[in-house]
Amino acid sequence: MSTPSVPSARTYSYLGPRGTFTEAALAQVEEAVGQEWRSVNNVGEALDDVVTGRSAAAMIAIENSIEGGVSVAQDALSTMPGLRIIGEYLVHVDFVLVVRPGMRLEDVKVVNAHPVAYAQCRGWLDRTLPGHAHVPASSNVQAAASLLENDLADAAVAPPGIVDHHALEIVARGIIDNPNAVTRFVLVSTSRELPRPTGADKTSLVAELPVDRAGALLELLEQFSTRGVNMSLLESRPIGDELGRYRFIIDADGHIFDERVADALLGVRRFSPSVVFLGSYPRADGARVAFDPRYSDDVFIDARDWLRAIVSGEPTVPLDVP
């Protein structure tokens, strides 16, 4: 009697080591529970895992409520082909200052911290440790771990749970400048299957301007405004081939299956020489998308039926616009 085969575990990549906010975001993914989690050193490695098939998906930070977009993640999603965002997750951010056992707060001269974390705690650090120096780290946990590996820094900015994983001492808590800080993470895969619309969705894309001239950006924005589509994120990133050339990272409220969003994307595709669709997925906050009834699905469908009737010589009826 043959033994039934056991399906192999799916692998998910995240910015490690253990204890990072990225790991906390991945813990929110139901389908990732009980699967293999692969700790990586940077965003590029996480996404390369997905592209090459080493991982089914990767969790990466994409935006912070204080610092805005995470440029390294935005650039990677813009340039690495075949990637899709399939979900987003929010993590409340807080930090502590940790030291080696026996070190006092007043003795700290050099602080190791991830650049984003450092920026979020800069005010507290400047007030409490005036004249301190900053050593950048690749992750929040790596900043703390490095204290036990070398003496380049006296302290590190780290997540509150860091002492559960490393023999360090907390000398200050709640050092973040804004206690309401939240980081937005996205789960990225190569799946082409779109999540079904929920009414509380977001669509992400990248678009380039066709030319660098007055009004070009306005024309891009009009592709959304004239369809009643709100943009919750608009950030520019240099393309890199020459000065003055930019691509725009866009988050639009709604799903590509929504007529107004689909029509806006068609407008962007006609307007821009390069458009990258990054996905439509449920919003992490669950907030339903509000829009003017003039841009409901029925209005777009009626307009197409009206045009089709004209072309085919059928009688037409006036559009019933709310």
UniProtKB/TrEMBL annotation:
Q: Which UniProt keywords apply?
A: Amino-acid biosynthesis, Aromatic amino acid biosynthesis, Lyase, Phenylalanine biosynthesis
Give the positions of the site Essential for prephenate dehydratase activity: 183
Pinpoint the ACT domain residues: 205-283
- Does Lyase count among this protein's keywords? yes
Q: Where does the Prephenate dehydratase domain lie?
A: 11-190
CDD domains per the UniProt record, alphabetical:
ACT_CM-PDT (cd04905), PBP2_Aa-PDT_like (cd13632)
Q: Which reaction does it catalyse?
A: prephenate + H(+) = 3-phenylpyruvate + CO2 + H2O
Q: Name one GO molecular function term.
A: prephenate dehydratase activity
For this protein, the record's PROSITE patterns field holds:
ACT, PREPHENATE_DEHYDR_3
One biological process GO term for this chain?
A: L-phenylalanine biosynthetic process
Could you confirm whether the keyword RNA-binding appears in this record?
no
Assigned EC number: 4.2.1.51
Q: Which GO terms describe its cellular component?
A: cytoplasm
The record's annotation in InterPro entries points to: ACT-like_dom_sf, ACT_dom, Chor_mutase/pphenate_deHydtase, Preph_deHydtase
Q: In which pathway does it act?
A: Amino-acid biosynthesis; L-phenylalanine biosynthesis; phenylpyruvate from prephenate: step 1/1
Which PANTHER family does the entry link to? PREPHENATE DEHYDRATASE P PROTEIN (PTHR21022), PREPHENATE DEHYDRATASE-RELATED (PTHR21022:SF19)
Protein name according to UniProt? Prephenate dehydratase
